[in-house]
Amino acid sequence: MGNINPSLLHIGSTVGALFMALMVIFIRLKASSRPVTIRKIWIPPLGMSTGFAMFVVPEVRFPLWWAAAAFLIGWFIFAYPLIRSTKFEEREGQIFARRSKSFAFILLGLLLIRTLLHEFINQYVSIPQSGGLFFILAFGMILHWRFFMYKRYNQMAPPESRIPQPRG
Fold first, then answer.
1. In whole angstroms, what is the distance from residue 66 CA to residue 63 CA?
2. pLDDT at site 157
3. How far apart are CA 8 and CA 37, in angstroms?
4. Which element (helix H / strand E) includes 54?
5. Chain-wide mean pLDDT for the chain?
6. Are 130 and 122 in contact (CB under 8 A)?
7. Structure confidence by residue, pLDDT tens digits, 156-166
8. pLDDT tens profile 19-29
9. Which are the contacts of 88, defined by CB distance < 8 A and separation ≥ 6?
10. Is 94 helix (H, G, I), strand (E, B) or coil?
11. How much is the pTM?
12. How many CB atoms are located within 10 Å of the residue 82 CB?
């Protein structure tokens, strides 16, 4: 991993995660004043998917079943609080995300759990591998949350703004 001190790398990644969590809280609070669109639902996971390029680096790789486990933990466990706290409302013929008082606390709680898990996992794998594992966990969490949002949006949206669903 080059000449980077692992302690500094660990501190940097924790501070970076805290900064990202605060940015997400800020963005989500501002987003509740703008209508939800299909594009706004899908851009975060699409943008995040570019992170899979990290697996080009051999030091980040790990067994496929680890990736599957991390993805499933994100999908089934970490996404649940986000799904429960996401509500939509219709105003003036448009759909808005209802501001949730618990969202910031949920996000900070997930960050705390993630940090504690990171501490535990770092005893068994390298820092780049744990970064990759937690990226996949976060991707599973975001993807499930956004699928939920898309499904709920399609239930509420007027027919002309929906994307047609395949029949079958």
1. 5
2. 81
3. 40
4. none
5. 86
6. yes
7. 887 766 666 66
8. 877 787 777 77
9. 36, 95, 96, 97, 98, 149, 152, 153, 156
10. strand
11. 0.81
12. 20
